[in-house]
Amino acid sequence: MKQLVFLLLLICTTGLVQGRIRHYKWEVKYEYKSPDCTKKLSITINGRSPGPTIIAQQGDTIIVELTNSLGTENLAVHWHGIRQIGTPWSDGTEGITQCPILPGDTFTYRFVVDRPGTYMYHAHYGMQKLAGLYGSIRVSLPDGVSEPFFYDHDRSLILNDWYHKSTYEMAAGLSSIPFVWVGEPQSLLIQGRGWFNCSLLTSPSLEPGVCNATNPECSPYFLTVIPGKTYRLRLTSITSLSALSFQIEGHNMTVVETDGHYVKPFTVKNLFIYSGETYSVLVKADQDPTRNYWMETSVVSRKPTTPPGLAYLNYYPNHPHRQPPTSPPANPIWNDTEPRMNQSLAIKAREDYIHPPPITSDRVIVLLNTQNRVNGRVRWSVNNVSLTLPKTPYLIALKEARGDLHNFFDQNPPPERYNFAAYDIFSNATNHNATTSDAIYRLKFNTTVDIILQNANTMTVNNSETHPWHLHGHDFWVLGYGKGKFNINTDPARYNLVDPIMKNTVPVHPYGWTALRFVADNPGTWAFHCHIDSHFYMGMGVVFEEGIEMVGKLPSQIMGCGITKGFRRL
């Protein structure tokens, strides 16, 4: 086994993988869809939502020619989990690595998928992900190399939540005085399908047929299995707000991979999964083959008003639309944090696939997540600073700007700590005022950085939310989780430096902390943010810069905004 690990590392580091080029041509536009039986303008790729699954092998080059046919909206697409080594301009983060794709323009993303695993793509402009612009990326090992676990078939499932409001309406509410919250989603979708109770739509102004429970677009999704076979289910959460529990009636799930890294196997009945996370679970079709079974998602960590999402595990040769004879399984208690914390602590790197972290770090940045007000508007902040993005993307400004960078974004470094002694994370703060800034953290190249994410009370009494944080351009080691306030003097002694899992997205539990470590070894500018759309829209994120002088010549197609309006060349 160790020889296999060495071979894989040699392949990855010496470029011996001779990948293929996989070329896609996508048109992004609005179309009416009814994923939960209610008609809504959705963003589609070649007429589909979810969009096409990208299936590739490690070392392949992906080329996506993306045409923006939205008419009046800009566009950018992020390839979530792909590190973009050598291609930071293809990360797809508007305002950070590129100017947006203008209506009518075609933009070409080109990048290498350097690691096998389960990933995703989604819109990264405004709140467009909520409108349906997302899909799966599945990267397999090179020919002749096998996984450290056995399965007969490989399947992907996207888990999502769904709103009936337009992204414009929700974004306007979040920016308004008085503040208008987006509310809880109307439905949960499994592979783009859900069900909404049409009787709840009682407004006389609605046109006939807006909600149609017999629409085939919202018939339950089914996953067909052959009795006795073992299935690898690649689960991806692209929710806009909801933390989820996923379960399959009567079946155990063995967790074997997360975010492209092999997990020391453990078995669950319910898998808790947060926005931006991916998991591979093994499921054996070993139950009564004369019937079908429920697959179910439900909301946790927020008081659920959204009904569970339901689909069928279809045992062949039963009819795929044959409803299971039982009621759907009971859901976990939504505000019980203990099993969710226990799952987080159980996720460790698989033996023989452990990438040891550096024993110490060169820099420690502690980020306090709080809800605040800025000039009367409700915002989310990190160390009392709410992120805004500049008119000229950071990557372009740092590479192309001539003269004083003060003209492009704030050069005062953001705070790296908060007042540990004075701040009470369990109380509603007496002063909710914060500031906005487009300043970034400048990291010395190839240094080791620790990030401590600290949760606190929101502006609502006795309320602390779950925040899934996603780092672009890197994987990080998850060194530990804790309850209450992080103690910078004693808690590092509890870090797992033996077999920590590596991930790109991780939850911070209510009134808790999460400790991460990564090496700043990927030249570029990289977002690090809460993956809940409304929270990032309201400023819950930061940006890291590292090794900018090592970034190659920027392609002109990423320009066209801010100071680069005259830089764009054909």
UniProtKB/TrEMBL annotation:
Gene3D superfamilies: Cupredoxins - blue copper proteins. Residues 1-19 form the signal peptide. Belongs to the multicopper oxidase family. It comes from the Eukaryota. CDD domains: CuRO_3_AAO (cd13893). Keywords: Copper, Disulfide bond, Glycoprotein, Metal-binding, Oxidoreductase, Repeat, Secreted, Signal. Residues 28-140, 156-317, 422-547 form the Plastocyanin-like domain. It is an enzyme of class 1 (oxidoreductase). It comes from Trapa incisa. It catalyses: 4 L-ascorbate + O2 = 4 monodehydro-L-ascorbate radical + 2 H2O. The keyword Metal-binding applies. This is L-ascorbate oxidase. InterPro entries: Cu-oxidase-like_N (IPR011707), Cu-oxidase_2nd (IPR001117), Cu-oxidase_C (IPR011706), Cu-oxidase_fam (IPR045087), Cu_oxidase_CS (IPR033138), Cu_oxidase_Cu_BS (IPR002355), Cupredoxin (IPR008972), CuRO_3_AAO (IPR034267). GO terms for cellular component: extracellular region. PROSITE patterns: MULTICOPPER_OXIDASE1, MULTICOPPER_OXIDASE2. Dimer. Its EC number is 1.10.3.3. Its cofactor is Cu cation.
